[in-house]
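User
New here, help please:
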Amino acid sequence: MTRYISFLTFVIYSAGASLGFSQSKLTFTGTFQGSFHPFDSLVIEDINTGSRIIKQYPDTVLNLLITGTDEFPSGKGCSLSQNFPNPFNGVTRFNIHLTESDKTDINIFSTSGKLILKYEKYLQAGDHSFTFSGRGEKIYLVSVKTSTSSSAIKMMNTSGTAGSDAKLEYHGQISADRGSGKGEGGFQYNTGDKLIFTGYMTDRAGFVLTDTISDILQQSTTYTFRFEKDYPVLILMYHKITDSIPLNEYERNSDVFENDLIYLRDHYYQILSMEDLLLLRNGDLKLTSDGIIITFDDGYESNYSKVFPLLSEYEMPATFFLVTEWMDTPDFMKWSEVWLMSQYTDNDGKTPFVMGSHTSSHPYLEQSAQYFATHDEYLNFLNTELGDSKNWITDITGQNTIFLSLPYGDGADNQDIINTAMANGYSGIRTSVWNSFTIDKMNLFSLPSIPILSDSSIDSIEDYLKKYESAKRTAIQ
């Protein structure tokens, strides 16, 4: 469908100290690939009150009159908010508001009327949050019924994959003092509150692009979303996962690790494999949010017994960098386990677990040069460490796209190491330089990463992703 609207206008009436009302006119435009472009939906959030409101094409005008009262429809029943983002790329969220406690039935259908899933729960009066993961249909119809009323919405999915299962997760009741999730009627805004505006658009390839702007309203303003921004990618480096208290900084408790995965899922990062970097470079894959790559060094037995089941459950890919001479020794994986992980296929028919090389014996690659009489002898040493390890992994797993992880982080940007890796057919090198990167500036043979240690807080990854935040947001006054 051709869309001709290239801007949205919102009028906000805000209550002042004297209880009078002032008017602010907000205009939103979007640019994509150098020209103005319409967008599908806009989410407005008030940081101070937690209120949120969603506007979708073609509904383009919003008038807010702040009265300090709950503006949900009076009477008994339920109200279903429009999901956001919409269109969505595999995962989206919606909220349900109940004016009284009641048994609530949620049914999700395809456009042909096929029941995709059914959910029943007795919910208390108030607002309730849900996450929906759908990959089997392009359009879903959501119906919510209580004993006194019903409500329905349509959700558009851009990542439809035949044969995969849909999932609905309940995240609990939203605190009443936050006022969020109340749909259009529940938005509360007070003069001086900080607002966040998030615009969503779908490009021709079906990818959902977003941009975010924040501001404190002082006057009528025009904002422009820039949808052509580059999302950063951050590689996480784990080592051993243990059920007990970590004995050193390179061990991480398994419960803490599972909470890491929940954090990554709930923050809607795009979880990638090292192989995906090649697809991103060639334009065969697109980032729709900040990217995260999960990696493990050394090849500990816990990678198979603890990490493998959790990653499978949360449907997240990962790369395991193996010290090949350590396999089949105590505390490390057996080659049979490496093979089983490499052959695992997910619901989409993909093999999400990729093996990489951490060399044959885990030496210092750059510092070892001082122990060789000639440069040629040093190059032979590098060739053995990198070549034998890669050949071993390829022979056992059948995987040909192999990345190298530098032991101890030694030798980043060393040209001898890079040349040897290239000569042995490696696809890239992961270093221990702490940083994130964007695809347009990516050097496959000098990829930064950050370690996740025993006492690391997983939310610290935001410090690395936000280095690009200023480039993501543009406000035209």
Q: What stands out?
A: The two ends are 32 Å apart (CA to CA). The mean pLDDT is 82. DSSP finds eight helices and 29 strands in the chain.
